[in-house]
Amino acid sequence: MKYEKLKKQLLERKHELEEHEKTQEDLESTELSNYDNHPADNATDLTDQHTQQALDRHEEEELESIDVALQAMDEGTYGTCAVCGKEIPIERLEIVPTALTCVDHADQSPEDHRPIEEKILDAAAEREDMDNSFEDVEDFGSSDSPADKA
Question: Which of 78, 86, 97, 135 is deepest in the core (most CB within 10 A)?
Answer without folding.
Answer: 78
